[in-house]
Design a protein that fits this description.
Shape: rod-shaped
Number of strands: 6
Largest sheet: 6 strands, mixed
Number of helices: 18
Helix content: 55-70%
Strand content: 5-15%
Order of helices and strands: HHHHHHHHHEHEEHEEHEHHHHHH
């Protein structure tokens, strides 16, 4: 503690004698301190954090503590400083303003000491020096105790707020009964509009505890998009508010800046209560990308991929049911035919474009397509067969690890 180290026995006695005289002026000292604080500091003049009565009580308590300490009637007790620091932190008062108000109070005390030592029987330069040292050492002790408590309390409040915010974000994504009666509270705490326009983002984590989209909330805020996020072992998910539906492109471009894995984005939707459904669609979009790949898909960009990804087991059954004759072929034959069929779909059924992509003569492609049709027993001109083949190829692409397994049992047999 600085206060005790700066006072020697002789100087302590001088300071105590002066403090006794100053204490007689305590009512006027309180009035002067309150008046100066309100005159110089708008936050106190406008009663933003404390009322005039609360300010006056705080000033009186702190000045009484100062005078008791300077008189030496008790050991310096910084509990009042800690109490003030905690109270103001809970009220949200800014720390610099708080410290400034305290310095104003101690400056008023010091002015009274100057008046006493500069005139009459108390005229004493050595006494003034001793009193000045004591007062400013006390300021250091008080400011340290107040600041430490203020920061500890602020951290405590922020942790509690963050815990509540995380719980509300969890409830928002869970949907259903979790949000009944709480949606207004969720919207208020997360600063999101109940009837606003949103997208949900689901980004695959590179490893447990690591964000695939670091600082994404701050980066979105810089572009005037509010959002709320949570991190799970496998995903970082967020709901992002948009000023208008066209803003989705801005958000997607931002997400693409530093993508490190798979990212799924829901369709644009309206109403905060629809967030859990949108999260499902964002997950579906993410699942439509190959595991281990890097990229981003918005659900409405590929409805077929979304349909396949939303029902993995049924989609795998479809792929095996439709493509089993080719999957059972020897490795080279199987791969050539599957690659040809996939290229044919990607080239919109054009034999010419497929041959160019695969560096083959068009007749070679025609021969392969004829064999594919024969092996599968399906026509490449029948819209129903083409739809099934396209869905089966998409499922095989999304769930490649199942292509070597025996065909799932047909539930209709």
């Amino acid at each position: 503690m600085h206060y005790r180290t700066v006072l020697r026995e002789g100087s302590a006695a001088v300071v105590a004698e002066l403090a006794v005289e100053v204490e007689k002026q305590l009512p006027a000292l309180i009035d002067g301190t309150v008046g100066r604080i309100r005159a110089e500091m708008p936050v106190y003049r406008d009663a933003r954090f404390v009322s005039l009565a609360e300010l006056r009580t705080s000033v009186r308590n702190n000045l009484e503590f100062v005078m008791r300490t300077l008189r030496g009637t008790e050991e310096p007790d910084l509990s009042q400083a800690r109490a003030t620091g905690r109270a103001r932190a809970l009220q949200g008062a800014p720390l610099p303003e708080l410290l400034r108000a305290y310095r104003i109070g101690l400056t008023e005390v010091w002015n009274r000491f100057v008046e006493l030592t500069a005139s009459g029987e108390h005229q004493d330069l050595r006494g003034l020096v001793a009193a000045t040292s004591a007062i400013w050492a006390l300021i250091d002790d008080y400011a340290e105790a107040l600041t430490t408590t203020y920061r500890d309390t602020t951290a405590e409040v922020m942790l509690a707020h963050q815990s509540r915010r995380s719980a509300l974000v969890e409830a928002l994504f869970a949907g259903g009964a979790a949000t009944e009666g709480t949606l207004w509270d969720i919207a208020r705490v997360l600063e999101l509009s109940l009837d606003g326009t949103y997208v949900v983002v689901a980004a695959e984590t590179p490893r447990v505890g690591h964000e695939p989209l670091p600082q994404i909330e701050n980066r979105l805020r810089e572009r005037h998009h509010a959002s709320a996020w949570r991190l799970t072992p496998d995903l970082q998910v967020g709901v992002v508010s948009m000023r208008d539906p066209a803003a989705s492109q801005v958000i997607i471009e931002l997400l693409r800046e530093n993508q490190t894995g798979r990212i799924g984005v829901s369709p644009v939707f309206t109403g905060l209560g629809n967030t859990s459904r949108a999260l499902h669609l964002a997950r579906v979009a993410l699942s439509s990308l190959m595991p281990g790949s890097t990229g981003m898909v918005q659900f409405n960009e590929s409805p077929l991929a979304g349909l396949v990804a939303s029902a993995p087991e049924a989609s795998v059954q479809l792929a095996h049911h439709v493509l089993r004759p080719i999957l059972d072929l020897p490795g080279d034959d199987r791969n050539v035919l599957l690659l040809t069929l996939r290229a044919w779909f990607e080239c919109q059924g054009s034999t010419k474009l497929t041959s160019e992509r695969m560096f083959c003569h068009p007749n070679t492609i025609r021969h392969r397509l004829k064999r594919i049709s024969e092996e599968l027993g399906r026509s490449l001109t029948d819209p129903a067969d083409i739809a099934e083949l396209g869905a089966a190829l998409r499922a095989l692409h999304m769930f490649p690890d199942t292509s070597h397994l025996p065909s799932p049992r047909d539930p209709l047999r």
